[in-house]
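Recap from last week: sequence in, structure out.
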Amino acid sequence: MISTIPQNEKLFITAQELMEQPKPKWLVKGLIHEGTLAFLSGYPSTGKSFIALELAACICEGKPFFGQEVTQGEVLYVAFERGDFTGQRLEGLTKEKGYTLTGFYANDPYTVLTLDLGEGETQLCEFLDNQGIKPKLIIYDTLRASFEGDENSSSLAQKVMTTMRKVNKRYDSTALVVHHLNQFGRLRGSTAFIGDADTELVVTEGTGANIDKVYLKSRKQNNARKFEKYTLTKQKVELEGDETTIVFNLEARLEEDTSPEEDSLQTDRQRLICEIVNNQQGVMSLRGVSDAMKEETGTEPNRETLKKELRLLNASGELNYAVEGNIHKIWAVAA
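Predicted structure tokens:
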């Protein structure tokens, strides 16, 4: 094999040279590094897209994202599904929070989007170059709608991730990918998605008295400690023509190193569910959890509510068990 590397070019460098290289910079301090690939995941209708658009507005204007400093720059929001609601959501942000959204770009919801990230970066880059857009952040919403084919295919997943990383490198940008969780509370599709990701931020819904809240926490954070948990409250915004939308406001930010009781976003009921499930050995049934709760509280829990709470706790990483798709069985997760 004939080498194509010039003789005076070094392929390998020393440890000292590595340590002297520039340190990674934050796009959002404590949350997302510049040039990385981050996932914003959650079950449907948990507010993922609203949170992504809030982040976009903050990056455009250099304003803190729920209290965290950001690096300002242009943002591209690619709505692969239901883009017709993007305008309303942006209108809510401008009306309620005063964003001007200068430097924000998105695809026209009334134009058919033919992008397929599984086919490479060429088409997306042509659109950006033709309009002279150099995004600091690109939001892909949602992952599943961004390519044709089986999302469980590891080879296809690698192609999609490679496409996004090539775009990042070309424009010195960062990728935020909105994606759904599966029935086990993990990223849907091939494990290659989470395996290649630098960060995963998980959105979960509150229940009961906390139904108007969502929680944002870190489940994967390469080369940094997992950030604080955020409690966000939904606020309804009235628009013209009897239309409405919502925005989120920061209610609380819990430090990672607080005590378990203070650090928990759970209700007493959810803590009881965790205690029952995590203290079991081997497989247990939904009926088993229900019976144990009835024995502790004297009241049999509603079956559908219990299923939702199990999914919520599993998605937030609170259970040491995995929940089967139909929630009829729960089994221990291998260490």
